[in-house]
């Protein structure tokens, strides 16, 4: 799944993904945990996280603890 | 919590006040959804800040917003949702589209689905020359509705120029089979097939659990078979192939299951990474643009007025 035949960008490039943090049945906590899981495996990954700041914020430590242990 | 350290300095947060709920009608969201996280997430792709958008929200609203904000690629009449289906092929999965973007598709739409599906298989499954099959109720040339026979002719005319092999009509049993790598169908049929597949898989899981509980001997057998069963579960676990991809738009949107947990969401993110790295969107646009340059004698369908 990680190789591709069509033209590829340099493997060192930064990849930015836009993530909708809201709207899932399990709430933003599952989304944040999911992107953290993917981020650990790929150092080039960056995210723009869209959602209510109070809940999405704990992802990058901007509002630590706001999310609480879920 | 330790996992979140991986995100330090790599997340840019956009504060949005509203949320699209699962019950919101797409038309409602189009009218008054400007402040939703979904709208904002799609707009990051629209204005080029991000390469791919991932959402686990309301599918209808996500598709409607994606079409309005990102616009259809030139020549595309109906965008489609493609998924990866566990299969007996060497790559482990087949691509199927459309699984529910639009309940109708005419011959020309089906041709576009074939081109889009072949492009997706090149990127998502790393196949240089994917085999494309058109879903029908039989494999003989005279089977099915007229638009399917028309699509059959159109797709076989275009296969050579677009680096895929057309295997002709396939049947429902071939969706997880080895005859084709890409299954083309309209969104109504595709959606019924997808949900039938999911329902069947969960029934088999249930029956298997019951069978192993039947007697002390079968309970012992379960203990002995545990690693095989875990391997099977991993192989058919829908969370590991989470993510439908919206095809035919100026930009890529990945729809995750609404019920996805962290594992499911990370699978959708990985799919998004694969698509971003391969510049999938740009490659697909080039391929679709080139098909319009090819003259063919089939009547073109009415274009939607915008």
Question: Which helices and strands occur, and which strands form pairs?
Answer:
The complex is a heterodimer of chains A (70) and B (306).
Chain A: E1 15-20, H1 27-41, E2 45-51, H2 53-56
Parallel strand pairs in A: 1-2
Chain B: E1 11-15, H1 26-32, H2 37-46, E2 52-55, H3 59-70, E3 80-86, E4 93-97, H4 107-124, E5 131-135, H5 146-159, E6 165-170, E7 182-184, H6 187-213, H7 216-236, E8 244-247, E9 252-255, H8 262-277, H9 280-292
Parallel strand pairs in B: 2-9, 4-7, 5-6, 5-7
Antiparallel strand pairs in B: 3-4, 3-8, 8-9
Helix pairs in contact in B: 1-3, 2-3, 4-5, 4-9, 6-7
Describe this structure in a few short sentences.
Chain A has 70 residues and is α+β, with helices and mostly antiparallel strands. Chain A has helices at residues 27-41, 53-56, and strands at 15-20, 45-51.
- Approximate shape of chain A: globular
Spatial strand order of the main sheet of chain A: 1-2
Helix/strand order of chain A: EHEH
Low-confidence stretches of chain B: 293-306
CATH superfamily of chain B: Isopropylmalate Dehydrogenase
Main beta sheet strand tally, sense and closure of chain B: 8 strands, mixed
Oligomer state equals heterodimer
Query: Quick one: CATH class of chain B?
Result: Alpha Beta
Order of helices and strands of chain B: EHHEHEEHEHEEHHEEHH
What average pLDDT do the residues of chain B reach? 88
Question: What name is given to the CATH topology of chain B?
Answer: Isopropylmalate Dehydrogenase
DSSP strand count of chain B: 9
Overall form of chain B: globular
- The fraction of residues in strands of chain B falls at 5-15%
Report helical residue fraction of chain A: 25-40%
